[in-house]
Structure formats: C-alpha cells, structure tokens
C-alpha cells in the first residue's frame, strides 16, 4: 500500500464489507495529475494495476526532475492539463534526461502509454530495474551500511580517527566544560503535513547547507543532524576556554540566517527555529 498503490481496491473492499453503496470515489483535482487517461475520462472508475503503472511513470518523472509533476508546463493550470489528457490530447511531463540512462527513460514512456495493455507489469518493471542496477550498489542495503559507517567515522576528530585506523582502543576522556547547541524547526510537524517528501528534503538541505557554512567560521564541532534537529558542541574534542562564546555567537548567526531562508512551496509561512544552549561536563565514551 506504500505510495497509495492499491488503496482504491482496499477502499472498495471495506465499502462492500460495510454494505455501503459506493458507486463513485471522487479524487481531488490535484490527485488526477497522477491518474491514467482512462481514469481521467471516468473518475468514478475503480483503479487497476495498469492505472497504477501509469501513476508510477509520473512518479518516475518527479524523481528525475526533482519537481512536481508537469512542472515544466508552467503556463497550464492543473485543470487544463487534466482536461487535455482526459480529452485524448497527449500531454506528459517534460523530463530532463541528460543524466538518466536511456533504458530508464524508455521504461517510463512505456509506463505512461495511452493504451493500458501496452504498459509493462510491475513484475516487468522490477525485472528491468534489477537488470539495470545489477553489479551496482545503488540504493542497496550494502551501500547504505557503507554510508552509515563512513558518516560515523567522519564524526570522530582526527586523532580518534587515526587511532581507529590503527585498530587502537580509545579510552574514555572527561571534559570539565563544554557548551552544547541544539535547534529544531518550529512547527515542523505541521509544515511536513502540507509538504511532499521532496519538498521537505529540499527545505532541510537549504537549511543545513546554510548552517554548515556558518559553523565553519567558529571553533565548534557538528555532532549530528536528526530530522530537523541540529546539534553542535564547542570545547570538545578540542578543549577551549571560550566555548560558550563560540556557541553563542554562532547561534546568533544561525538565527539571523533563518530570516533569509524561504520555504519555497509555502511562501506565506516564515521559517522559525528554537535554540537551546547548555554548558556543563561531558564524558567521551570508550570506542
């Protein structure tokens, strides 16, 4: 049921079990951007595997373009695009195929064929993707594990990283005074509810790119980012007497930078962050 595939069948099944007389499930206008021509011609028609394949092709175009469907047709409204396709006029997203393998483009175009019988099955699509990625670590678990290990390794300071490369054990160390910075986005849950995943990724990328650029000017150490949370520390791994000053000045710069960052898909919503700072002792654990 992930990505809404198959939900129409589930909805129909539940309706039948509840003895509800449901003749038509009316999708919203925006949802029809992912719908196949046969569904656009008859919105009351229940979905099918073939129409799901068409929807998949539109999602593929979104992934390739990193934008909403039909984003290149700026002069056309959602309703006009839906009317064009529903009336038999061939309208499909314009895709920038510069860095995309030809076989993936061919597969996408097969999936959005006007004729449902000419669209490949999900099994065929899976087979073609598997063949394309054979011998490559593209979005596979081993690639993810390598990335997680590499990311964790980068979080260590140079002396610790060098010692780990030599197979040495890192003994616990105590830091009498360090200052820790935390921040997150105010109303992030609400913003997420009105955003698509790619829009959230774009927002966080813009935000953290700005933050990373700022902390390069200070004697601080970025510990991690989790979702919309950003954590920085000063006074560790390098002991400093001005750790609180470094974090405070950095926090003010970060706070000011948020006034320059706009939420592109929610232009009327200001970006606000909450900041917490604490100074105290810290123990670096054995590694």
Automatic annotation (TrEMBL):
PROSITE patterns: GUANYLATE_CYCLASE_2, PROTEIN_KINASE_DOM. The keyword Transmembrane applies. It catalyses: GTP = 3',5'-cyclic GMP + diphosphate. It holds the Pfam family PK_Tyr_Ser-Thr. One of its GO terms (biological process) is intracellular signal transduction. InterPro entries: A/G_cyclase (IPR001054), Cyclic_nucleotide_synthase (IPR050401), Kinase-like_dom_sf (IPR011009), Nucleotide_cyclase (IPR029787), Prot_kinase_dom (IPR000719), Ser-Thr/Tyr_kinase_cat_dom (IPR001245). The keyword DNA-binding does not apply. Its EC number is 4.6.1.2. Its main location: membrane. It comes from the Eukaryota. This is guanylate cyclase. Keywords: cGMP biosynthesis, Glycoprotein, Lyase, Membrane, Nucleotide-binding, Transmembrane, Transmembrane helix. GO terms for molecular function: adenylate cyclase activity; ATP binding; guanylate cyclase activity; peptide receptor activity; protein kinase activity. It is a single-pass membrane protein. GO terms for cellular component: plasma membrane. Residues 1-129 form the Protein kinase domain. Residues 179-280 form the Guanylate cyclase domain. It is found in: Membrane.
